[in-house]
Amino acid sequence: MTARHVLVLAAGKGTRMRSSRPKVLHRLAGCPLVEHVLRAADPLAAASTTLVVGHQAEAVERELAVSRGALGFVRQERQLGTAHAVLQAEPMLAGQRGTLIVLTGDAPLVSPGTAQALAETHERTGAAATVLTATLERPYGYGRIVRRGGRLAEVVEEADATPAQRALREVNSGIYAFDLAPLFAALRAVPEAGPKRERYLPGILRRYREQGLDVETVVAAADEIRGINSRHELAEAGALMRHRKNEEMMAAGVTIVDPATAYVDVDVDVGPDTVIHPGVILEGRTSIGARCELHAGVRIVNSVVGDDVTVNNHSVIIDAEVASAARVGPFAHIRPGSTVGAEAKVGNFVELKKATLGAGAKAGHLSYVGDAAVGAGANIGAGTITCNFDGAVKHRTTIGEDVFVGSGTQLVAPVTVERGAYVAAGSCITDDVPADALALARARQVNKPERAAALRNKIADSE
Question: Which CATH number fits the domain that encloses residue 116?
Fold first, then answer.
Protein backbone atom coordinates (compact mmCIF):
# COMPACT_ATOMS: atom_id res chain seq x y z
CA MET A 1 0.00 0.00 0.00
CA THR A 2 1.19 3.50 -0.84
CA ALA A 3 2.47 5.40 2.19
CA ARG A 4 0.38 8.43 3.05
CA HIS A 5 1.35 11.65 4.77
CA VAL A 6 -0.89 14.53 5.83
CA LEU A 7 0.05 18.21 5.83
CA VAL A 8 -2.33 20.79 7.34
CA LEU A 9 -1.81 24.45 6.50
CA ALA A 10 -2.50 26.41 9.69
CA ALA A 11 -0.17 29.40 9.61
CA GLY A 12 -2.55 32.20 8.67
CA LYS A 13 -3.48 35.08 10.94
CA GLY A 14 -7.15 35.30 9.99
CA THR A 15 -7.40 39.08 10.19
CA ARG A 16 -11.10 39.10 9.31
CA MET A 17 -11.87 37.16 12.48
CA ARG A 18 -10.90 40.29 14.47
CA SER A 19 -9.52 38.10 17.21
CA SER A 20 -6.46 37.73 19.41
CA ARG A 21 -6.95 33.97 19.16
CA PRO A 22 -5.43 32.01 16.25
CA LYS A 23 -8.11 31.38 13.65
CA VAL A 24 -7.64 27.61 13.56
CA LEU A 25 -8.26 27.42 17.33
CA HIS A 26 -11.68 29.06 17.19
CA ARG A 27 -14.21 26.48 18.31
CA LEU A 28 -16.90 24.90 16.18
CA ALA A 29 -19.41 22.45 17.68
CA GLY A 30 -17.10 21.84 20.63
CA CYS A 31 -13.73 21.47 18.85
CA PRO A 32 -11.13 23.82 17.36
CA LEU A 33 -11.46 24.25 13.59
CA VAL A 34 -8.19 22.44 12.99
CA GLU A 35 -9.31 19.47 15.12
CA HIS A 36 -12.19 18.85 12.71
CA VAL A 37 -9.68 18.84 9.85
CA LEU A 38 -7.42 16.38 11.67
CA ARG A 39 -10.38 14.09 12.35
CA ALA A 40 -11.26 14.09 8.65
CA ALA A 41 -7.71 12.85 8.02
CA ASP A 42 -7.72 10.15 10.72
CA PRO A 43 -9.09 7.34 8.45
CA LEU A 44 -6.21 7.90 6.03
CA ALA A 45 -3.92 6.11 8.53
CA ALA A 46 -1.11 8.49 7.62
CA ALA A 47 2.48 7.62 8.43
CA SER A 48 2.96 11.23 9.53
CA THR A 49 0.78 14.27 10.18
CA THR A 50 2.42 17.68 10.09
CA LEU A 51 1.03 21.16 10.67
CA VAL A 52 2.48 24.28 9.10
CA VAL A 53 2.09 26.97 11.76
CA GLY A 54 3.00 30.63 11.83
CA HIS A 55 0.77 33.18 13.55
CA GLN A 56 0.78 32.44 17.29
CA ALA A 57 2.51 29.15 16.51
CA GLU A 58 3.21 28.40 20.17
CA ALA A 59 -0.49 28.58 21.08
CA VAL A 60 -1.47 26.22 18.25
CA GLU A 61 1.31 23.76 19.09
CA ARG A 62 0.50 23.86 22.81
CA GLU A 63 -3.23 23.19 22.39
CA LEU A 64 -2.81 20.40 19.86
CA ALA A 65 0.02 18.77 21.79
CA VAL A 66 -2.39 18.34 24.70
CA SER A 67 -5.32 17.00 22.65
CA ARG A 68 -3.44 15.13 19.92
CA GLY A 69 0.07 14.24 20.97
CA ALA A 70 1.92 12.74 17.98
CA LEU A 71 1.95 15.62 15.52
CA GLY A 72 4.82 17.29 13.70
CA PHE A 73 5.07 21.07 13.39
CA VAL A 74 6.99 23.27 10.99
CA ARG A 75 7.09 27.07 11.02
CA GLN A 76 6.22 29.43 8.20
CA GLU A 77 7.70 32.55 9.72
CA ARG A 78 6.60 34.75 6.81
CA GLN A 79 3.32 33.95 5.09
CA LEU A 80 4.38 33.99 1.43
CA GLY A 81 1.66 31.84 -0.10
CA THR A 82 0.42 28.28 0.00
CA ALA A 83 3.20 26.85 -2.17
CA HIS A 84 5.73 28.47 0.14
CA ALA A 85 3.86 26.96 3.13
CA VAL A 86 4.06 23.42 1.75
CA LEU A 87 7.74 23.95 0.95
CA GLN A 88 8.41 24.49 4.68
CA ALA A 89 7.59 20.80 5.25
CA GLU A 90 10.43 19.59 3.02
CA PRO A 91 12.80 18.91 5.96
CA MET A 92 10.11 16.75 7.62
CA LEU A 93 9.31 14.81 4.45
CA ALA A 94 12.68 14.68 2.70
CA GLY A 95 13.37 11.22 1.33
CA GLN A 96 9.77 10.07 1.84
CA ARG A 97 7.75 8.51 -0.97
CA GLY A 98 4.05 8.11 -1.40
CA THR A 99 1.06 10.47 -1.23
CA LEU A 100 0.89 13.82 0.52
CA ILE A 101 -2.62 15.01 1.37
CA VAL A 102 -2.66 18.80 1.85
CA LEU A 103 -5.57 20.12 3.92
CA THR A 104 -6.36 23.61 5.14
CA GLY A 105 -6.77 24.19 8.85
CA ASP A 106 -9.71 26.54 8.39
CA ALA A 107 -11.89 24.18 6.27
CA PRO A 108 -13.53 22.07 9.00
CA LEU A 109 -16.46 20.67 7.01
CA VAL A 110 -14.50 18.32 4.74
CA SER A 111 -15.63 14.79 5.57
CA PRO A 112 -13.47 11.71 6.20
CA GLY A 113 -15.13 10.06 3.20
CA THR A 114 -14.11 12.88 0.90
CA ALA A 115 -10.52 12.87 2.19
CA GLN A 116 -10.42 9.12 1.61
CA ALA A 117 -11.86 9.47 -1.91
CA LEU A 118 -9.23 12.10 -2.73
CA ALA A 119 -6.38 9.82 -1.63
CA GLU A 120 -7.78 6.74 -3.34
CA THR A 121 -8.43 8.50 -6.66
CA HIS A 122 -4.97 10.00 -6.61
CA GLU A 123 -3.30 6.64 -5.98
CA ARG A 124 -5.47 4.70 -8.43
CA THR A 125 -4.76 7.09 -11.32
CA GLY A 126 -1.06 7.51 -10.57
CA ALA A 127 -1.44 11.29 -10.91
CA ALA A 128 1.24 13.78 -9.94
CA ALA A 129 -1.48 15.92 -8.32
CA THR A 130 -5.18 15.57 -7.60
CA VAL A 131 -7.33 18.60 -6.79
CA LEU A 132 -10.51 18.60 -4.71
CA THR A 133 -13.09 20.79 -6.47
CA ALA A 134 -16.72 21.77 -5.95
CA THR A 135 -19.44 23.54 -7.88
CA LEU A 136 -20.79 26.65 -6.15
CA GLU A 137 -23.85 28.75 -6.89
CA ARG A 138 -21.82 31.84 -5.97
CA PRO A 139 -18.15 31.15 -6.63
CA TYR A 140 -16.98 34.65 -5.72
CA GLY A 141 -13.47 34.71 -4.29
CA TYR A 142 -12.44 31.21 -5.41
CA GLY A 143 -10.02 30.18 -8.11
CA ARG A 144 -11.92 28.76 -11.08
CA ILE A 145 -11.29 25.32 -12.56
CA VAL A 146 -10.70 25.60 -16.30
CA ARG A 147 -11.18 22.34 -18.19
CA ARG A 148 -10.35 21.36 -21.73
CA GLY A 149 -11.78 18.13 -23.06
CA GLY A 150 -13.15 17.44 -19.59
CA ARG A 151 -9.68 17.47 -18.00
CA LEU A 152 -8.28 20.13 -15.72
CA ALA A 153 -6.19 22.57 -17.72
CA GLU A 154 -5.48 25.21 -15.10
CA VAL A 155 -6.74 27.05 -12.04
CA VAL A 156 -7.32 30.75 -12.63
CA GLU A 157 -7.55 33.06 -9.66
CA GLU A 158 -10.54 35.36 -9.73
CA ALA A 159 -8.43 38.51 -9.98
CA ASP A 160 -6.78 37.13 -13.13
CA ALA A 161 -9.89 35.59 -14.70
CA THR A 162 -11.61 36.76 -17.86
CA PRO A 163 -15.37 37.44 -17.71
CA ALA A 164 -15.98 34.02 -19.27
CA GLN A 165 -13.78 32.33 -16.69
CA ARG A 166 -15.52 34.19 -13.84
CA ALA A 167 -18.79 32.68 -15.05
CA LEU A 168 -17.43 29.19 -14.31
CA ARG A 169 -18.85 27.70 -11.11
CA GLU A 170 -16.41 24.85 -10.49
CA VAL A 171 -13.80 26.06 -8.02
CA ASN A 172 -10.56 25.02 -6.37
CA SER A 173 -11.00 23.99 -2.72
CA GLY A 174 -7.34 24.44 -1.79
CA ILE A 175 -7.19 20.74 -0.81
CA TYR A 176 -4.84 18.48 -2.78
CA ALA A 177 -3.14 15.12 -3.03
CA PHE A 178 0.42 15.09 -4.39
CA ASP A 179 2.96 12.46 -5.36
CA LEU A 180 5.87 13.28 -3.06
CA ALA A 181 8.62 12.33 -5.52
CA PRO A 182 8.46 15.42 -7.80
CA LEU A 183 6.75 17.77 -5.36
CA PHE A 184 9.41 19.87 -3.65
CA ALA A 185 11.53 20.47 -6.75
CA ALA A 186 8.37 21.64 -8.54
CA LEU A 187 7.40 23.90 -5.62
CA ARG A 188 10.72 25.71 -5.79
CA ALA A 189 9.99 26.47 -9.44
CA VAL A 190 6.55 28.00 -8.79
CA PRO A 191 6.84 31.66 -9.79
CA GLU A 192 6.10 34.53 -7.45
CA ALA A 193 2.87 36.38 -8.15
CA GLY A 194 0.93 39.42 -7.01
CA PRO A 195 2.06 42.56 -5.21
CA LYS A 196 3.33 40.57 -2.22
CA ARG A 197 5.45 38.28 -4.45
CA GLU A 198 3.86 35.12 -3.01
CA ARG A 199 3.92 31.53 -4.30
CA TYR A 200 0.59 29.72 -4.62
CA LEU A 201 -0.08 26.01 -4.97
CA PRO A 202 -2.22 26.25 -8.14
CA GLY A 203 0.98 27.33 -9.91
CA ILE A 204 2.33 23.80 -9.57
CA LEU A 205 -0.63 22.39 -11.49
CA ARG A 206 0.16 24.42 -14.59
CA ARG A 207 3.80 23.37 -14.35
CA TYR A 208 2.82 19.70 -14.11
CA ARG A 209 0.59 19.95 -17.18
CA GLU A 210 3.39 21.63 -19.13
CA GLN A 211 5.66 18.72 -18.19
CA GLY A 212 3.05 16.19 -19.31
CA LEU A 213 2.34 14.97 -15.77
CA ASP A 214 -1.20 13.88 -14.96
CA VAL A 215 -3.43 16.13 -12.85
CA GLU A 216 -6.75 14.66 -11.68
CA THR A 217 -9.77 16.06 -9.85
CA VAL A 218 -12.27 14.81 -7.27
CA VAL A 219 -15.56 16.67 -6.88
CA ALA A 220 -16.89 17.31 -3.35
CA ALA A 221 -20.18 18.69 -2.07
CA ALA A 222 -20.21 22.47 -2.00
CA ASP A 223 -20.53 22.74 1.79
CA GLU A 224 -17.44 20.60 2.42
CA ILE A 225 -14.97 23.09 1.01
CA ARG A 226 -16.17 26.11 2.98
CA GLY A 227 -13.31 28.00 4.56
CA ILE A 228 -13.75 30.03 7.74
CA ASN A 229 -12.51 33.60 7.36
CA SER A 230 -14.97 35.58 9.50
CA ARG A 231 -17.29 35.24 12.48
CA HIS A 232 -20.21 35.12 10.07
CA GLU A 233 -18.72 32.16 8.22
CA LEU A 234 -17.98 30.47 11.56
CA ALA A 235 -21.66 30.77 12.49
CA GLU A 236 -22.75 29.42 9.09
CA ALA A 237 -20.42 26.43 9.46
CA GLY A 238 -21.77 25.84 12.95
CA ALA A 239 -25.32 25.63 11.60
CA LEU A 240 -24.24 23.11 8.97
CA MET A 241 -22.39 20.97 11.50
CA ARG A 242 -25.33 21.01 13.92
CA HIS A 243 -27.60 19.92 11.08
CA ARG A 244 -25.28 16.98 10.35
CA LYS A 245 -25.17 16.00 14.03
CA ASN A 246 -28.94 16.25 14.46
CA GLU A 247 -29.56 14.10 11.38
CA GLU A 248 -27.11 11.50 12.72
CA MET A 249 -28.88 11.38 16.09
CA MET A 250 -32.37 11.19 14.64
CA ALA A 251 -31.28 8.37 12.34
CA ALA A 252 -30.10 6.55 15.50
CA GLY A 253 -33.50 6.84 17.20
CA VAL A 254 -33.35 10.15 19.07
CA THR A 255 -36.39 12.45 18.93
CA ILE A 256 -35.50 16.12 18.44
CA VAL A 257 -38.67 18.19 18.71
CA ASP A 258 -37.17 21.24 16.97
CA PRO A 259 -33.82 20.52 15.27
CA ALA A 260 -33.32 24.22 14.52
CA THR A 261 -32.92 24.96 18.23
CA ALA A 262 -30.99 21.87 19.34
CA TYR A 263 -27.31 22.69 19.86
CA VAL A 264 -25.38 19.42 20.16
CA ASP A 265 -21.59 19.22 19.92
CA VAL A 266 -19.94 16.60 17.74
CA ASP A 267 -18.56 14.53 20.64
CA VAL A 268 -21.93 14.15 22.38
CA ASP A 269 -23.57 10.68 22.49
CA VAL A 270 -27.33 10.33 22.94
CA GLY A 271 -29.13 7.02 23.39
CA PRO A 272 -32.22 5.87 21.48
CA ASP A 273 -35.73 7.02 22.44
CA THR A 274 -34.38 10.05 24.24
CA VAL A 275 -36.46 13.18 23.58
CA ILE A 276 -34.74 16.54 23.16
CA HIS A 277 -37.08 19.51 23.51
CA PRO A 278 -36.49 23.01 22.03
CA GLY A 279 -33.53 25.05 23.21
CA VAL A 280 -31.45 22.18 24.62
CA ILE A 281 -27.65 22.59 24.57
CA LEU A 282 -25.37 19.54 24.91
CA GLU A 283 -21.68 20.37 24.98
CA GLY A 284 -18.26 18.75 25.09
CA ARG A 285 -17.94 15.03 25.79
CA THR A 286 -21.43 14.53 27.17
CA SER A 287 -23.16 11.15 27.17
CA ILE A 288 -26.95 10.88 27.48
CA GLY A 289 -28.54 7.48 28.01
CA ALA A 290 -31.61 5.90 26.44
CA ARG A 291 -35.22 6.99 27.07
CA CYS A 292 -34.26 10.27 28.71
CA GLU A 293 -36.29 13.45 28.41
CA LEU A 294 -34.47 16.77 28.24
CA HIS A 295 -36.93 19.64 28.52
CA ALA A 296 -36.64 23.15 27.10
CA GLY A 297 -33.65 25.27 27.99
CA VAL A 298 -31.53 22.47 29.49
CA ARG A 299 -27.73 22.80 29.22
CA ILE A 300 -25.46 19.82 29.89
CA VAL A 301 -21.66 20.05 29.59
CA ASN A 302 -19.06 17.24 29.81
CA SER A 303 -21.41 15.09 31.87
CA VAL A 304 -22.74 11.53 31.97
CA VAL A 305 -26.48 11.03 32.24
CA GLY A 306 -27.86 7.49 32.64
CA ASP A 307 -30.96 5.88 31.16
CA ASP A 308 -34.53 7.04 31.89
CA VAL A 309 -33.46 10.38 33.36
CA THR A 310 -35.74 13.42 33.23
CA VAL A 311 -34.11 16.84 33.22
CA ASN A 312 -36.73 19.55 33.56
CA ASN A 313 -36.72 23.02 32.11
CA HIS A 314 -33.74 25.37 32.39
CA SER A 315 -31.50 23.10 34.44
CA VAL A 316 -27.71 23.20 34.10
CA ILE A 317 -25.43 20.18 34.58
CA ILE A 318 -21.66 20.66 34.24
CA ASP A 319 -18.89 18.07 34.73
CA ALA A 320 -21.23 15.83 36.70
CA GLU A 321 -22.92 12.41 36.69
CA VAL A 322 -26.63 11.65 36.89
CA ALA A 323 -27.57 8.00 37.35
CA SER A 324 -30.49 6.14 35.82
CA ALA A 325 -34.10 7.19 36.53
CA ALA A 326 -33.09 10.33 38.43
CA ARG A 327 -35.08 13.57 38.09
CA VAL A 328 -33.49 16.99 37.88
CA GLY A 329 -35.05 20.44 37.93
CA PRO A 330 -36.66 22.62 36.84
CA PHE A 331 -34.08 25.37 37.38
CA ALA A 332 -31.58 23.07 39.10
CA HIS A 333 -27.82 23.65 38.97
CA ILE A 334 -25.54 20.62 39.26
CA ARG A 335 -21.98 21.90 39.39
CA PRO A 336 -18.65 20.15 38.71
CA GLY A 337 -17.74 17.13 40.79
CA SER A 338 -21.33 16.23 41.69
CA THR A 339 -23.07 12.85 41.40
CA VAL A 340 -26.82 12.23 41.50
CA GLY A 341 -27.71 8.65 42.34
CA ALA A 342 -30.26 6.36 40.73
CA GLU A 343 -33.87 7.48 41.23
CA ALA A 344 -32.71 10.52 43.20
CA LYS A 345 -34.40 13.89 42.82
CA VAL A 346 -32.85 17.33 42.54
CA GLY A 347 -35.74 19.76 42.44
CA ASN A 348 -36.61 23.42 41.86
CA PHE A 349 -33.76 25.86 42.40
CA VAL A 350 -31.51 23.30 44.08
CA GLU A 351 -27.75 23.64 43.65
CA LEU A 352 -25.23 20.84 44.10
CA LYS A 353 -21.50 21.53 44.20
CA LYS A 354 -18.95 18.71 44.70
CA ALA A 355 -21.81 16.80 46.25
CA THR A 356 -22.99 13.21 46.08
CA LEU A 357 -26.71 12.52 46.34
CA GLY A 358 -27.28 8.83 47.03
CA ALA A 359 -29.77 6.53 45.34
CA GLY A 360 -33.35 7.60 46.00
CA ALA A 361 -32.30 10.70 47.96
CA LYS A 362 -34.30 13.91 47.52
CA ALA A 363 -33.49 17.58 47.62
CA GLY A 364 -36.75 18.98 46.38
CA HIS A 365 -36.70 22.76 46.72
CA LEU A 366 -34.54 25.83 47.15
CA SER A 367 -31.48 24.20 48.74
CA TYR A 368 -27.69 24.47 48.47
CA VAL A 369 -25.75 21.23 49.00
CA GLY A 370 -22.03 21.90 48.62
CA ASP A 371 -18.99 19.77 49.52
CA ALA A 372 -21.32 17.10 50.86
CA ALA A 373 -22.17 13.42 50.75
CA VAL A 374 -25.88 12.61 51.11
CA GLY A 375 -26.76 8.97 51.72
CA ALA A 376 -29.34 6.84 49.93
CA GLY A 377 -32.94 7.59 50.79
CA ALA A 378 -32.17 10.82 52.64
CA ASN A 379 -34.51 13.80 52.41
CA ILE A 380 -33.20 17.37 52.28
CA GLY A 381 -35.98 19.81 53.19
CA ALA A 382 -36.68 23.07 51.37
CA GLY A 383 -34.27 25.89 52.10
CA THR A 384 -31.53 23.68 53.57
CA ILE A 385 -27.98 25.03 53.34
CA THR A 386 -24.68 23.26 53.91
CA CYS A 387 -22.47 26.03 55.26
CA ASN A 388 -19.25 24.75 53.74
CA PHE A 389 -16.97 27.80 53.76
CA ASP A 390 -15.51 29.37 56.90
CA GLY A 391 -13.91 32.25 55.04
CA ALA A 392 -10.66 30.42 54.43
CA VAL A 393 -11.30 26.69 53.92
CA LYS A 394 -14.09 24.54 52.44
CA HIS A 395 -15.37 21.82 54.79
CA ARG A 396 -17.39 18.63 54.19
CA THR A 397 -20.87 17.73 55.36
CA THR A 398 -21.85 14.05 55.62
CA ILE A 399 -25.50 13.05 55.75
CA GLY A 400 -26.17 9.35 56.26
CA GLU A 401 -28.71 7.04 54.69
CA ASP A 402 -32.41 7.65 55.41
CA VAL A 403 -31.72 10.92 57.23
CA PHE A 404 -34.55 13.47 57.32
CA VAL A 405 -33.42 17.10 57.29
CA GLY A 406 -36.26 19.52 57.93
CA SER A 407 -36.86 22.71 55.97
CA GLY A 408 -34.79 25.81 56.65
CA THR A 409 -31.90 23.90 58.22
CA GLN A 410 -28.32 25.12 58.27
CA LEU A 411 -25.60 22.46 58.52
CA VAL A 412 -22.35 24.15 59.58
CA ALA A 413 -19.48 22.05 58.23
CA PRO A 414 -17.56 20.04 59.14
CA VAL A 415 -20.50 18.09 60.49
CA THR A 416 -21.98 14.58 60.23
CA VAL A 417 -25.60 13.52 60.53
CA GLU A 418 -25.61 9.77 60.95
CA ARG A 419 -27.96 7.18 59.49
CA GLY A 420 -31.67 7.49 60.25
CA ALA A 421 -31.39 10.73 62.24
CA TYR A 422 -33.99 13.53 62.11
CA VAL A 423 -33.15 17.22 62.07
CA ALA A 424 -36.01 19.51 63.03
CA ALA A 425 -37.00 22.30 60.66
CA GLY A 426 -35.29 25.63 61.27
CA SER A 427 -32.29 24.13 63.06
CA CYS A 428 -28.70 25.35 62.87
CA ILE A 429 -26.60 22.19 63.30
CA THR A 430 -23.03 22.73 64.46
CA ASP A 431 -22.33 19.36 66.13
CA ASP A 432 -22.54 15.79 64.83
CA VAL A 433 -25.93 14.06 65.13
CA PRO A 434 -25.87 10.37 66.17
CA ALA A 435 -27.76 7.68 64.29
CA ASP A 436 -31.54 7.66 64.89
CA ALA A 437 -31.34 10.81 67.03
CA LEU A 438 -33.61 13.84 66.75
CA ALA A 439 -31.65 17.11 66.60
CA LEU A 440 -33.25 20.46 67.43
CA ALA A 441 -31.17 23.61 67.39
CA ARG A 442 -33.48 26.59 67.53
CA ALA A 443 -34.71 29.06 70.14
CA ARG A 444 -38.00 28.28 71.93
CA GLN A 445 -40.94 30.22 70.55
CA VAL A 446 -42.36 32.94 72.79
CA ASN A 447 -45.78 34.57 72.08
CA LYS A 448 -46.45 38.10 73.41
CA PRO A 449 -50.23 38.75 73.54
CA GLU A 450 -51.43 42.05 72.07
CA ARG A 451 -47.82 43.02 71.18
CA ALA A 452 -48.56 43.17 67.42
CA ALA A 453 -51.29 45.79 67.88
CA ALA A 454 -48.98 47.89 70.05
CA LEU A 455 -46.28 47.73 67.38
CA ARG A 456 -48.70 48.84 64.69
CA ASN A 457 -49.80 51.81 66.82
CA LYS A 458 -46.21 52.80 67.48
CA ILE A 459 -45.42 52.73 63.75
CA ALA A 460 -48.50 54.80 62.97
CA ASP A 461 -47.57 57.44 65.57
CA SER A 462 -44.08 57.81 64.09
CA GLU A 463 -45.29 58.54 60.58
Answer: 3.90.550.10
Count of domains for the chain: 2
Lowest mean pLDDT among 57-61, 94-98, 170-174, 402-406: 94-98
pLDDT of residue 19: 93
- What are the CA-CA distances from residue 399 to residues 108, 411, 433, 438 (Å)? 49, 10, 9, 14
Identity at 405, one-letter amino acid code: V
Q: Between β-strands 170-179 and 99-104, what pairing exists: parallel, antiparallel or unpaired?
A: antiparallel
154-172 pLDDT, tens per residue? 999 888 899 999 999 999 9
Structural domain ending residue among the three candidates 225, 251, 280 = 225
Please report whether residue 360 resides in a domain: yes
Give the pLDDT of residue 79: 87
Q: 348 lies in which domain range? A: 315-439
Q: Determine phi and psi for 62, rounding to 5 degrees.
A: -65, -45
Answer whether residue 173 is part of any domain: yes
pTM reported for the whole predicted model: 0.92
Does some domain include residue 261? Answer: no
Measure the CA–CA gap between 373 and 380, rounded to whole angstroms. Answer: 12
pLDDT digits (tens, 9 = 90+) for 222-281: 999 999 999 999 999 999 999 999 999 999 999 999 999 999 999 999 999 999 999 999
Residues 257 and 226: their CA atoms lie apart, in Å, by 29
Residues 221 and 321 in one domain: no
Closest C-alpha among 297, 340, 334 to residue 319: 334
- At 26 the pLDDT is 96
Provide CB contacts within 8 A for 4, sequence distance 6+: 44, 45, 46, 47, 98, 99, 100, 101, 119
Is-contact 323 359, C-beta < 8 A? yes
Residues tagged active-site: 365
CA distances from 224 to 37, 107, 108, 186, 324 (A): 11, 8, 8, 28, 39
Confirm if 9 and 130 have CB atoms less than 8 A apart: no
**Residue 154, in any domain of the structure:** yes
Which CATH number characterizes residue 353's domain? 2.160.10.10
